[in-house]
Amino acid sequence: MASLVNSLIAFHLIVLMSCYLTKTTTGVFSTQSPFSQSGKGMEKITQLHFYFHDNITGRNPTAMQIIGPPKGSVGGFGTTFMIDDPLTEGPDPSSKIVGRSQGIYALASQHKIELLMVLNFAFTEGVFNGSTLSIFGRNVVTQEVRELPIVGGSGVFRYSRGFALAKTYMSTPTFGLAIVEYNISVLHV
Ligand SMILES: *[C@@H]1O[C@H](CO)[C@@H](O)[C@H](O)[C@H]1NC(C)=O
Ligand SMILES: *[C@@H]1O[C@H](CO)[C@@H](O)[C@H](O)[C@H]1NC(C)=O
Ligand SMILES: *[C@@H]1O[C@H](CO)[C@@H](O)[C@H](O)[C@H]1NC(C)=O
Predict the structure, then answer these.
(1) pTM for this model (two decimals)
(2) Which of 14, 66, 78, 183 could cross-link 70 (Cys pair, CB 3.0–4.6 Å)?
(3) First-to-last CA distance in the chain?
(4) Given this model, what pLDDT does residue 34 score?
(5) Which one of the ligands is nearest to 62 CA?
């Protein structure tokens, strides 16, 4: 009996939640709203999915080494890159560009390949055109899926907080080229 009551409660919760999370989709971006009532504004949860292309090779690289490795550095510790990488709808580099990832990543571990990521994702498509999300996190690139905090945003992403899940789609052994899949989940007003 208790388990029946529990499953009924669970069922009602699911129905309630699906009422709250009415989904609207615009291309790669999907918005679920409204999420919750907090104070004056209604918070929304938005989920984004795209691919990040980091290309250090060739004549027009989208990522450049700007620092180091410093003298005496172990395993490249301190090496820093500045990037202006395209974000695309699909994994193919020629698929539609939905924004750019601008900022810095640096080798922040003396023992492993662990990156400090300080990035702005600047979107150029649909309702998110002109809006940005700011990432500040640790990226242990040897892990299959890495979680990076979203610490803020602008435009439609004002008051943002959330997280990004990053998974390498493909990379060259020397990290000259990497395509990374991103799933982002953010709360914002
Ligand atoms: C990487 O950049 C080089 C030179 O700019 C270019 O030839 C190559 O197609 C790029 N690769 C990808 C996958 O974007
Ligand atoms: C995004 O906004 C810029 C500046 O307002 C505009 O020039 C551009 O055409 C817009 N792009 C899209 C895809 O709406
Ligand atoms: C992103 O979400 C899609 C759909 O749920 C899933 O197939 C994919 O594995 C996820 N990728 C990451 C990096 O979380």
Answers:
(1) 0.81
(2) 78
(3) 42
(4) 44
(5) 1
CA distance 103 to 82: 6
Domain 44-188 falls in which CATH fold? AOC barrel-like (2.40.480)
What residue ranges do the domains of the chain occupy? 44-188
Mutate to test the pocket of ligand 2, among 124, 154, 156 (most ligand atoms within 8 A of CB): 124
**By C-alpha distance, which of 3, 4, 5, 38 is closest to 159?**
38
Residue positions counted in the chain: 189
In angstroms, rounded to a whole number, what is the distance separating the alpha carbons of residues 12 and 139?
A: 38
Mean pLDDT by 10 residues, the chain (189 residues): 46 39 49 48 90 90 94 93 97 96 97 95 96 98 96 96 97 86 96
Q: What is the largest CA-CA distance in the chain?
A: 70
